[in-house]
């Protein structure tokens, strides 16, 4: 199975590196010609994954047509660009593995729903979990969920990607795997706010727990399974991303918590903080299914600049007491 990777940001590059540990022919599409050149000539992705020496088995191209000979495609562009990129790739009936974590603005669609429209003949899998790209590219031990409704295909894709240090766990719950990855990015912004505003470790733990309750309420309303939400792609990734400034989403939140404006923090960013795009569409999607997500609403308000951090925290803490259950 010849692997093609579409998107040469940090995560696409790390996944190409994973595939290249056993495969002598991995092709990655970079939107930026200078990134292709840097990978092919210097064996490094200086723009998006600096400091990692890349395998000589990875070739880069900036021509999407060059992916025509690939047997399976990993889609690793940011979520808001999945549809436009798929429109340019004649995917046909080749399996696609969706790796972006987000919800499409405007349509409120999950990535699998976008892909089902844009590449209707392609079998779909989702790869999602607690996976900082630098650690994966450096070969540090990592476990991840690979979800595919077709169990046999899921197993063959997992076998194709698995390495001693990269361990996919199989699931058939595609929606559940996607919801965990999309929602945790928004909650990571909230945890960053807690850090930036100096609210302490108790508050961070409370936010992870109550954030997980929000993720679970929304996930269950959308048909996700409890074990998926409590697994690597849900709780696992929530804990990772809420714990470290290595997370772009957590860092963005930290800046907000320090009182900086979202527009300034997001201006001229080359790397993506998906939670900033997911937050408003997630809030809408939650209202569609009648689910309360107060932490997500709070992140939306901060991103819009509607409210100051102190006022927001006071409002969250003043909510009526309630039962802990979902
Ligand atoms: N970085 C990680 O550790 C990590 C881990 C797991 C999942 N992810 C997810 O992978 C996805 C990609 O993130 P990343 O970290 O690789 O990106 P990145 O922040 O490293 O790089 C940004 C990417 O966006 C691409 N881009 C910009 N404008 C574009 C356009 N108009 N059309 C298509 N692509 C465009 C750039 O070419 C580049 O590949 C995100 O959904 C992210 O949540 C990231
Ligand atoms: O840097 P972040 O916040 O986009 O997080 C990266 C990955 O999603 C962690 O699993």
Automatic annotation (TrEMBL):
Glycerol-3-phosphate dehydrogenase NAD-dependent N-terminal domain boundaries: 2-152
Any one GO BP annotation for this protein: phospholipid biosynthetic process
Residues reported to bind NADPH: 11, 31, 101, 133, 248, 272, 274
Binding residues for sn-glycerol 3-phosphate: 101, 129, 131, 184, 237, 247-249
Keywords: Cytoplasm, Lipid biosynthesis, Lipid metabolism, NAD, NADP, Nucleotide-binding, Oxidoreductase, Phospholipid biosynthesis, Phospholipid metabolism
EC class name: oxidoreductase
Reactions the enzyme catalyzes: sn-glycerol 3-phosphate + NAD(+) = dihydroxyacetone phosphate + NADH + H(+); sn-glycerol 3-phosphate + NADP(+) = dihydroxyacetone phosphate + NADPH + H(+)
Annotated ranges, domain Glycerol-3-phosphate dehydrogenase NAD-dependent C-terminal: 173-313
Short name of any one Pfam family annotated for the protein: NAD_Gly3P_dh_N
This protein's record includes keyword Cell inner membrane: no
GO cellular component, one term: cytosol
Residues annotated to bind substrate: 101, 248-249
Main location: cytoplasm
Highest rank taxon of the organism: Bacteria
Pathway listed: Membrane lipid metabolism; glycerophospholipid metabolism
Coiled-coil segments: none
GO MF: glycerol-3-phosphate dehydrogenase (NAD+) activity; glycerol-3-phosphate dehydrogenase (NADP+) activity; NAD binding
Signal sequence interval, chain numbering: none
Database matches in InterPro entries: 6-PGluconate_DH-like_C_sf, 6PGD_dom2, G3P_DH_NAD-dep, G3P_DH_NAD-dep_C, G3P_DH_NAD-dep_N, NAD(P)-bd_dom_sf
Compartment(s): Cytoplasm
EC number: 1.1.1.94
Residues the record lists as binding NAD(+): 7-12, 81, 133, 248
Record-given protein name: Glycerol-3-phosphate dehydrogenase [NAD(P)+]
Upper lineage: Bacteria, Pseudomonadati, Pseudomonadota, Alphaproteobacteria, Sphingomonadales
